[in-house]
Design brief:
By secondary structure, the protein is of the alpha/beta class. The protein has a single domain, classed as Rossmann fold, CATH 3.40.50. α2 packs across α3. The mean pLDDT is 93. It binds adenosine monophosphate (AMP). Adenosine monophosphate (AMP) binds next to α2 and α3. Adenosine monophosphate binds next to α2 and α3.
């Protein structure tokens, strides 16, 4: 299946994408993760992207489109993929449509996870990230077993630069202005599946599988 996970920052796109990866055995392709890896590695692309990311702004389209083109051409994406954090603007969605058409592929569905803004702010301000393995925790809803340390690899957890409050507000307004227009774009293509993102990750996962017609075992 070729899927897009759409939703504001903090909606749980990454968590749900990961559940689909396990269920469908397709790769998760996250532009946020790819960009953070480039920043960590100190590549030229990473240096360019960092200032946009720290301000909660979108990295220029040509940068992320190039990254996605290269990633989707790899063998592991030929049987399907779940895109997480891409596209984030109509120009990116149009580029993706062209890219897929060139290789005779089509999207199967766009899952739009809907969460009220107040709830998003609460979730995002308590986020803790592992700089080494990328695991995510939350000070209230998913605290690490040992305070301040990653459950998986033991590294010291951090608040990502782009999870600071003023950056979060900026990311939410960028989402409303630039990414929300993707909903009518995909609704017109008959691909949009709205999913309530207010429940637990397990409940949201169930709603997603139901929307995709995947049987629960
Ligand atoms: P995320 O982890 O998906 O919230 O992404 C973190 C940051 O990376 C965003 O706030 C943007 O600065 C940048 N980013 C991720 N995906 C995209 C994209 N598709 N287009 C532009 N910028 C992106």
């Amino acid at each position: 299946m070729k899927l897009i996970m759409l939703g504001p920052p903090g909606a749980g796109k990454g968590t749900q994408a990961q559940m689909l990866v396990e269920r469908l055995r397709i790769p998760q392709v996250s532009t946020g993760d790819l960009l953070r890896a480039a920043v960590r590695e100190g590549t030229e692309l990473g240096r360019q992207a960092k200032s946009f990311m720290d301000q909660g702004r979108l990295v220029p389209d040509e940068v992320v489109i190039g990254m996605i083109r290269e990633r989707l051409a790899r063998p592991d994406c030929q049987g399907g993929f779940v895109l997480d954090g891409f596209p984030r603007a109509v120009a990116q969605a149009q580029a993706l449509d062209r890219m897929l058409a060139e290789t005779g592929r089509r999207l199967d569905a766009v899952l739009s996870i809907e969460v009220p803004e107040g709830e998003l702010l609460r979730r995002l301000t308590g986020r803790l990230s592992c700089p080494a393995c990328g695991a995510m925790f939350h000070k209230d809803s998913k605290p690490p077993r040992k305070s301040g340390l990653c459950d998986n690899c033991g590294s010291r957890l951090i608040t990502r630069d782009d999870d600071r409050e003023e950056t979060i507000r900026k990311r939410l307004s960028v989402y409303a202005e630039q990414t929300e227009p993707l909903k009518p774009y995909y609704r017109n293509q008959g691909l949009l599946k709205p999913i309530s993102g207010s429940g637990t990750p397990v409940e949201i996962g169930r709603a997603i599988r139901e929307a995709l017609g995947i049987k629960d075992v």
